[in-house]
Amino acid sequence: MHFEITPWYPFLKRIKMMKYMKNVCFDTYFFFKYIIFHLFMGGVILNLSAKLLEISFLCYFLYLNTVLIINLFTMKKLFLLSMLALFSLTMSAQESKFFVGANVGMPTGDISDLYSVSFGADVNYMFNTNFGVAVGYQSFSGKTISILGTDMKIPSASFLPIAAAGRYNLSDAFVLGADVGYAVGMSPEGNDGGFYYKPMLAYAVASNVSINVHYSGIGVDGGTFSSLGLGVLFGL
Known about the structure:
By secondary structure, the protein is of the alpha+beta class. It contains 3 helices and 11 strands.
């Protein structure tokens, strides 16, 4: 027998944003600290403490602005409107540049028992070296699991992330970054989405091509859609 069931977690129409913000800031900081410690020891990067301080300030800046938005208005509606306004305001920036790409990853945490792989597409618009906006599509492919001898298909879950993008150049080749925003739920039915965050480390392999390793999370009530993945971006 083979049929579909809904995921184990309940979806709610409103996501409790505040409880995720603090954890995300700490997660982002320790992600950066881990990557830098293991990849750049031995003097490859000078003044490491100063760079970590600037990165922490960037994360805190994103945190404060998101908290302000939540306190003033309903986050979901205002954030979508803000992103549209930000796109229109930045189209005239002289240093702007589009990036498009794709990513693939392995689900982590509790959802790894229900989902086999994540994949998606990314579009970034940077209106200066450090700040921009990011939109994309992310899908988690459901597994077929067996319960008491019965095969059950977990429906795939898909999201449309819309986020503010922050970037910091460690060198001519290496860039640390983070996307913070809201992931609109696309499927299955009842998926209202949730708070979205994505710290990353990118390496420029050519003038218009970069690869990145990232950790992404979408907080929903009852769990988090998280994955560790690799991505590639092409400058247009």
